[in-house]
Amino acid sequence: MKKISFLICVLLVVHASQAQSIVGVWQGYLGVGGRQIRFVMHVSKTGNEYSSSFDSPDQNSFGLQGSKTVMEADSIIAEINIMKAGYRGLWNGKDSIQGNFKQGNFKTPLNMKRMDEKDVPKPPATPIRPQTPKAPLGYLSEEVIYKNADSSLQYGATFTKPIQGSNFPTVILISGSGTQDRDGSMFGHKPYGVLADLLTKQGIAVLRVDDRGAGKSSLGDNPAKLTSVDFAGDVNNSIQYLLSRPDVDKKKIGLIGHSEGGMIAPMVAVKNKQVAFIVLLAGPGQKGQEVWNFQMRRSLEMTNLSAADKAIADSLINNMNLAFGKSTDFDAVQTEMKEVYSNWKKAVPDSLEKKLFITSPQAAMLSMAQQYKAGLAWLNYFLNYEPSTNLEKLKIPVLALNGTYDIQVTCDENLSAIEAALKKGKNKKYEVHALPNLNHLFQTAKTKVQSYNSIDETFSPEAANLVGAWILKTTK
């Protein structure tokens, strides 16, 4: 899902005081997803210039820089334009600020207190991941900036290629859902950076790109209206950039899509004849609604339910989720969810509901709608997207891989659906592989539920070798 990740933009209105200064560190609590998370604001001043930065310690997010911080009369304004969010509060001239946080149409109270420096949450030490590329790389690496045809969008990327040889295949990495930098950085891991490293060492050039709003890529207009179609357009712009490079073999350009990227790659390939092959890493073969329903059921339902009880629980989650696929209007989504829950509840006593769910399903689903309020257009498109539509049209070589420990895009169901669509379209040039013990990020895991953070491996070398060997064989 390429929704805009939860970050913060702040607008403060305060009364100035001769004896006190708003400079310092402030903390409050935001209600998100049914829980309270800490929100920290740092305000500083150099000469006559103010600056600000923000932390969300419970989300492991630190040092988000404000894009604008100014004093206007008795008000201070600190913004991060990319997030289209804000906080307006009234300072008492001493140690508290009272106000409301707002992001898009979402608004919630947020009161903050001044903090002592010793109490300020510190970022955790970044784990040292053994596969993170280190110099000397053994290949050429170039930081690049390019734009779309009308220069309304800018993309920041890294292009890596072998030191020797020419006419090597070139791939574009397409990220999964959420706003990610070119390396796919999370939990100290850089999965796309590591994959690029492993592939380039095999003799394949790689372009990995910051998503819109991340790194050096611009967000563009109307972010709330962005869908996978727009992200497919970004991939086409990256293809045009590669075509402008004299060191790229125009007949050997391919796409590697991970997760949602595995949905976008076929969308691009069926229309752009420059695409010579595609690799789908944990790409969906099932309709988006099925993938989403599975994820929500797994998040909310108790484990080890009887078949009868699970059917009752599934019916509620599946039917409440239908609201996302029917409308992009927040009020309409909420209204339908409440109606579905009310009808379901008529036949389900409180005791059974508590037996079926980890938490209140109505509260959790309404909270989910609130969290996706600014991304309802993206979610609506995803849920209604049928991957087989484009997969059946593909005549180019396709490699589809998934890990048997993937609990986000399940292995058997999605690989089977991908293969069925390719067979129906009479594609003769595909391979489908289920890779044992690999999770959604293609890490080797001990169990299906082992956290990404607890695994030192960033990307399975065996999986990367399989991808590289297939690309080199396919582009001979």
- For the record, the CATH class of the largest domain is Alpha Beta
- Structure annotation, total helices: 12
Q: Report Rg.
A: 24 Å
* Biggest β-sheet strands, sense, barrel: 8 strands, antiparallel
Molecular shape: globular
The fold-level CATH name of the largest domain is Rossmann fold
Q: What is the domain total for the residues?
A: 3
- DSSP helix fraction: 25-40%
Strand content: 25-35%
- Tell me what the CATH architecture of the largest domain is: 3-Layer(aba) Sandwich
CATH superfamily of the largest domain: Alpha/Beta hydrolase fold, catalytic domain
Structural class given helices, strands, pairing?
alpha+beta
On the 0 to 100 scale, the average pLDDT is 90
CA(first)-CA(last) distance:
34 Å
Residue stretches low in confidence (pLDDT < 50, at least 5 long) are: 1-19
The overall strand count is: 19
Can you walk me through this structure?
- The protein is α+β, with helices and mostly antiparallel strands and 476 residues long.
- It has 3 domains: 11-119, Lipocalin (Beta Barrel), CATH 2.40.128; 140-287 and 385-474, 3-Layer(aba) Sandwich (Rossmann fold), CATH 3.40.50; 288-380, no CATH class.
- The protein is 30% helix and 25% strand.
- It is built from 12 helices and 19 strands.
- It has helices at residues 191-200, 228-243, 261-269, 288-300, 307-326, 330-345, 350-356, 361-371, 376-384, 388-391, 411-424, 461-474, and strands at residues 11-12, 24-32, 35-46, 49-56, 61-65, 68-72, 75-79, 85-91, 96-103, 106-109, 112-114, 140-147, 154-161, 170-174, 205-209, 253-258, 275-281, 398-403, 430-435.
- Strands 2, 3, 4, 5, 8, 9, 10 and 11 form an 8-stranded antiparallel sheet that branches.
- Strand 9 (96-103) and strand 10 (106-109) form a beta hairpin.
- Helix 2 crosses helix 3 (261-269), helix 4 (288-300) packs across helix 5 (307-326) and helix 5 runs antiparallel to helix 6.
- It is globular, with a radius of gyration of 24 Å.
- The two termini are 34 Å apart.
- Residues 1-19 have low confidence and may be disordered.
